[in-house]
């Protein structure tokens, strides 16, 4: 019988995997598959509840259990990729929460306000003209940094260039990681632009809602229903923008956005999906419903879809309300009964 190779020193502990769990994963990699009884015979499983052990290995994304009850290892590359993504997300949230609690940003902004340099608006100011494309981009960057609940955006042209995507991606990802409700309206030209479609699908996979408008759109960005940015000249956005925190103006723009949103159509799902428009679900919602039938933990479902846990839970709660379900299990059953999945 060939000897099993000695385990190397490099391990998964730095990615949050306990030594005993890693030993069992390595055993599965060597054997290909095992049932619970054989796995329980390994010294690393001695004295442990095998139900909890298997559940833990599954939650970590290290193993999959077959219908016949066999445990099979996830490929090392995919397993490590999932662990890195989970650990990165955990550290990012930890740092962001620490920064928010520290008050360092308000402290730094106070330095600007004290000398009247750089801030978007001075105390008591409700409307400001911002001139030039770079100044507008800086304003958008600062607005999104302080957006915590909702981001509403329109793109009348519908087409987003590679350069525009490169600038927008870090801003969009930042607010989506926080679980901010993002809604974006694109002009119909987006349907004929593969670059825009790819980026739009990337955003919907991370929790954004996108619709396509077949009627003219007014360009605007509204953050947390308290601040809005509109172009000085709709036909030449490079000239600059008007930033307002005037409640009446923001409310009017918000009302206009909602009317445009209602008239727009759902963003088209990727080819091969059987979901129909009359079900009124986005591509992400469809994937989440499928996840409810397969993943027993929000953390697992969110990781499989590549979105933040808060975003995943927000959509689950919304689907439960629409289905009239009391819990996740009932939501999955009702979705199947109605033919949603």
UniProtKB/TrEMBL annotation:
Gene3D superfamilies: Winged helix-like DNA-binding domain superfamily/Winged helix DNA-binding domain. GO terms for biological process: regulation of DNA-templated transcription. InterPro entries: Sig_transdc_resp-reg_C-effctor, TrmB-like, Tscrpt_reg_LuxR_C, WH-like_DNA-bd_sf. Residues 278-335 form the HTH luxR-type domain. GO terms for molecular function: DNA binding. Transmembrane segments: none annotated. PANTHER family: HTH-TYPE TRANSCRIPTIONAL REGULATOR TRMBL2. This is HTH luxR-type domain-containing protein. It comes from Streptomyces regalis.
């Amino acid at each position: 019988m060939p000897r099993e190779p000695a385990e190397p020193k490099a391990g998964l502990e730095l990615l949050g995997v306990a030594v005993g769990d890693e030993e069992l994963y390595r055993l599965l990699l060597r054997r290909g598959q095992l049932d619970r009884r054989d796995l329980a015979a390994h010294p690393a499983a001695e004295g442990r509840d095998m139900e909890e052990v298997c559940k833990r290995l599954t939650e970590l994304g290290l193993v999959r259990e077959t219908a016949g009850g066999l445990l099979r290892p996830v490929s090392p590359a995919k397993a490590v990729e999932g662990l890195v993504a989970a650990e990165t997300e955990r550290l990012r949230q930890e740092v962001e929460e620490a920064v928010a609690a520290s008050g360092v940003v308000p402290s730094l902004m106070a330095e600007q306000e004290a000398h009247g340099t750089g801030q978007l608006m001075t105390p008591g100011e409700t409307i400001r003209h911002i001139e030039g494309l770079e100044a507008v981009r800086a304003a958008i960057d600062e607005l999104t940094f302080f957006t915590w609940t909702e981001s509403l955006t329109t793109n009348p042209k519908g087409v987003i260039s590679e350069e525009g995507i490169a600038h927008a991606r870090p801003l969009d990802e930042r607010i989506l990681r926080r679980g901010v409700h993002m809604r974006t309206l694109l002009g119909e030209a987006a349907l004929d632009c593969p670059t825009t479609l790819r980026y739009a699908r990337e955003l919907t996979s991370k929790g954004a809602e996108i619709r396509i408008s077949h009627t003219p759109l007014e360009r605007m960005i509204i953050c947390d229903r308290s601040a809005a940015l509109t172009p000085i000249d709709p036909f030449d956005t490079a000239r600059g923008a008007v930033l307002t925190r005037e409640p009446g103006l923001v409310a009017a723009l918000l009302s206009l956005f909602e009317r445009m949103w209602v008239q727009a159509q759902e963003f088209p799902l990727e080819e091969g999906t059987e979901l129909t428009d009359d079900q009124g679900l986005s591509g992400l919602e469809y994937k989440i419903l499928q996840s409810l039938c397969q993943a027993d933990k929000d953390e697992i479902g969110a990781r499989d879809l590549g979105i933040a846990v808060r975003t995943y839970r927000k959509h689950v709660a919304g689907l439960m309300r629409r289905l009239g379900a009391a819990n996740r299990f009932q939501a999955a059953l009702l979705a199947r009964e109605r033919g949603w999945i």
